[in-house]
Each structure stands twice: as structure tokens, then as C-alpha cells.
Amino acid sequence: MDSHWAKEIVEELATLEIIQGYEHGTFRPNEPISRMHVAVLFACTFEFESIRSAKVFSDIAPKPIYYEEINTLQQGGIIDGWGDTFRPLEAITCAQVAKILAKTLQLTSEGTSSFSDVSSNHWSMDYIAALEQVEIALGSNGEFYPKTPVTRAELATFLFRALQF
């Protein structure tokens, strides 16, 4: 992390005890982050009110550490799965994080996204546009990369900006 662009953000979130690295003192900022880890981070960072009944995901046993966190976000109307699966180990994409952030912050879009790779008919366009309008989503070189897995550093940046909001 010494020369990484997200060093200060990661250190700030670590100081706030929102994120942590690995047991041997590394953070691995450029690695993708899984859907289950994002659920844990959001459940620990934000408060969610239950607005719907629990959904049973066939790929999540009731004992793992992330079970309650996934249920909290699902019952809060923040996350969904695919049919009866959640795919907890799958890397989360930028579009999926945009949905989670926009729903968590209760943001709605007031227009379209200016990112060149987010079409007006993309399923996540409203979420991305909402985050863009409040400068939580800044993109890179005019693109958002909705299908690209989010790295640990990028997620830390999204979280940091969301907490400033």
C-alpha cells in the first residue's frame, strides 16, 4: 500500500475499523472483492431496516459468518440474488456495487449517466447515474466499467465517499 493511490482512504477506513487487511499485514488493494465480503462490509458500516421477508439462498448455509449480513441486506431491499442463489464467492462488479450503494443511501437518479460505457438501457444505469450525480462514482477516463469486478481499493473508495455523503 505504500505507493498505492488509495492508501490514505484505506488507512482512514481501517482507523474507523470499517475495513481490515489480511492477518499478515497486507491489504491486497488490486484484488477483486467477493459479494459476501461486500455484504459484510455494508452490514457493519450502515444500518438497515427490514422491509421484506428473508429469502432462502440455496448456496448459503445458515452457519457461515456472512449469513446474517447477507440476510440483513436482502431483507433491507438492498441486494438480491439470481433465482435461489446469491453467489457469495463471486467477484462483485461495479454495476452491482452501484446498486448496493444507491439503495443504501436511498439515492434516485435525476437523469442519465455521462459514462460512455453505461447505455441508457443498462439495468444499472439509474444507480450509476445517481452515484455520479453526487460524485460518489467518478469513473476513469469517462467510463464506469459496469461489468468489471471491483477491487478492494475501489470498494474502499466507494465506501469512503458514501460515508462523506
From TrEMBL:
SLH domain segment(s): 1-56, 57-110, 111-165
Pfam family for this entry, one: SLH
Keywords, in A-Z order: Signal
PANTHER family hit by this protein: OUTER MEMBRANE PROTEIN ALPHA-RELATED (PTHR43308), S-LAYER PROTEIN _ PEPTIDOGLYCAN ENDO-BETA-N-ACETYLGLUCOSAMINIDASE (PTHR43308:SF5)
Protein name as catalogued: S-layer homology domain-containing protein
